[in-house]
Design goal:
The protein is mostly helical and about 150 residues long. The chain has five helices and no strands. The protein has one domain (about 15-150). Helix 1 runs antiparallel to helix 4 (about 95-120) and helix 4 packs antiparallel against helix 5 (about 125-150). About 15% of the residues are buried.
């Protein structure tokens, strides 16, 4: 296969175009499945941790959501400020299991948007839409989080 390209690409036969499109769609669906697994892990950690396989893991400070959310703060104290620059924002996905799987879920969804769109439009436009989706999502999340919180 000479590299994947969208269905509108010129100089192809219909069979090759359909095969190429199917690869984009399969990749996109694989990302959707991976995102769903990540969200399942997030919900398990948040609502059923003590009854889950994660409870058996030795690093409770990372896996137990009742204490791990404090990992992003210096001395595990929200009043002491961030543990390191970005630990409460851009790098929060590195501080505990719940945020790590949230980061992965978001990346898989963004990649799925890109791959699914790439089956039908150029990769440049698909990338632009995927980035735009992520930026808009991030802005709306941040505004909502700050306004609906304490």
């Amino acid at each position: 296969m000479e590299g994947l390209r969208p269905i509108w690409y010129g100089g192809f036969n219909m069979f090759d175009a359909i095969v190429d499109m199917m690869w984009w769609l399969v990749g996109g669906m694989a990302c959707v499945i991976a995102a769903a697994v990540c969200e399942g892990i997030m919900d398990t950690l948040q609502f059923h941790y003590t009854y889950s396989v994660f409870w058996q893991f030795s690093n409770k400070q990372f896996w137990d959501p009742t204490i791990s959310w404090r990992n992003k703060y210096r001395a595990a104290d929200p009043l002491a400020g961030p543990r390191f620059p970005g630990s409460t924002t851009i790098f929060v996905g590195l501080t505990d299991a719940w945020h790590l799987f949230k980061l992965l879920r978001n990346k898989f969804v963004t990649l799925a948007v890109f791959l699914l769109l790439s089956a039908f439009i150029s990769m440049s436009w698909a990338m632009l839409y995927a980035v735009l989706y992520r930026v808009v999502y991030g802005i709306i999340f941040t505004i909502s989080y700050r306004n609906f919180g304490e």
